[in-house]
Amino acid sequence: MLPENNLPELPPYSLDVEGMDLGSDIKAVGLELIGTESREPVRGEEAASIWAAVIPALAGEETWVLDFFSHLDRVRDYSKGHEVEFREAANRCLVIPQLPADKLRELVGRFAGETFGLRCGAAANEADVAVESELSRRGLDAYQDAYTRYTFCAICEPDDGWVTLLSQSLWPSEIIRRARPALQPFRVHIARPQ
User: Fold this and answer.
1) How is the beta sheet containing 152-157 ordered, strand by strand?
2) Tens digit of each residue's pLDDT (9 = 90 or more) over 1-36
3) How far, in whole angstroms, is CA 41 from its chain's centroid?
């Protein structure tokens, strides 16, 4: 049934997927999760559920890990209290191996206000001392030199509705193809802004 104005109802959320220009040496794609009408970042439980569905969809069958480099005491305490496995990777870096959907959703919801990283690919099967040391020293700028060793590295800023994905192999069209099935339960419109 159509609304009174006979226009189809818009999905409540939109995921804009767009190539980004971060310089000639860096291939990046931005994913922005926003309210379709408000154009504001989606926050809260619904956003955490959406991002928790998108992360494993983008990774597919490949190994992925999350990198935290700030507020480490809070991340450590949360992980211990919620039976989330983690590894003290370097002076100021905690690495959390891929999680089941429910634990990922809870973790993303709890740390939505933080910026954290995501590495995906065969290189994530082992500790990456070089990138983990650089994460401790430089934060997520470390991905700029490391992302070519991975299928992708991503900078996650859930409360801002934003994920910046660095990849030599994933174009916006492939990201959309991977994300679309995971987003169907949430009524998210996927767009490629011009």
Assistant:
1) 87-90, 93-97, 64-68, 116-120, 152-157, 162-166, 27-35, 13-21, 188-191
2) 445 555 567 778 999 999 888 777 788 999 999 999
3) 14
| Sequence-ordered alpha helix ranges (H) in 5-59 | 44-59
Residues 6+ apart with CB under 8 A from 157: 115, 163, 164
- What is the C-alpha to C-alpha distance for residues 30 and 16, in angstroms, rounded to an integer? 8
Residue 39, beta-bridge partner list = none
**Tokens 């809870």, residue?**
106
Helical (H) or strand (E) element with 72: helix 72-81
* Model pTM above 0.85: yes
Per-residue pLDDT tens over the stretch 130-164? 999 999 888 888 998 899 999 999 999 999 999 99
Token representation of residue 164? 């910046």
Contact 93, 70 (CB under 8 A): no
